[in-house]
Amino acid sequence: MGLRYAEASDVKRLVDEIVDDLGLFHVVPQFVYCYRSRGSESRGTVARIHGLGRIWQDALRRPPSYVIEVISERYDPLSQEDKEKTLIHELLHIPMGFSGGFRPHKGYISRIEVDRLYGKLLERRSLKRSAS
Q1: What tens digit of pLDDT does each residue of 5-32 get?
Q2: What is the CATH number of the domain that holds 48?
Q3: Closest C-alpha among 8, 2, 5 to residue 86
Q4: How large is the C-alpha radius of gyration of the chain?
Q5: Full residue range of the structural domain in which residue 8 is found
Q6: How far is the C-alpha of 61 from the C-alpha of 100, rounded, in Å?
Q7: By C-alpha distance, which of 92, 100, 80, 99 is closest to 13?
Q8: Residue 40 and residue 2: Cα distance in Å, rounded?
Q9: Looking at the 3D structure of the chain, how many domains does it have?
Q10: In the chain, at which residue ranges do the beta strands (DSSP E only) sit?
Q11: pTM for the whole thing?
Q12: I need a surface site. Which of 14, 38, 61, 128 has the fewest CB within 10 A?
């Protein structure tokens, strides 16, 4: 049957919430798209991010954009916490300039950084709830 893709509105809502709650102001939500794939042959990959590189931006006359792809077979069974940590990890690949390029793992993305941001996410949500 092969690899199949479908828009993932649930993932998009969660990504937008994370971006807002963490104050990731460099991320432009309307140019971050979320898809769910089924039938991936990749081993161990839960999610990945795709960027629209500069040559494609120019050729298609489109702004820098990103697609976060969650691999259904591995992402869907995760706990809510692990889903959020996975999406934080993918968002960390987006550089401050929101250029269509990527930040590498080295120096930017680690389990420690993801856990730190997840703790900040929980803290901000708790403050929001107590303020309302």
Answers
A1: 999 999 999 999 999 999 999 999 999 9
A2: 3.30.2010
A3: 8
A4: 15
A5: 4-127
A6: 13
A7: 80
A8: 8
A9: 1
A10: 4-7, 32-38, 47-51, 66-71
A11: 0.94
A12: 61
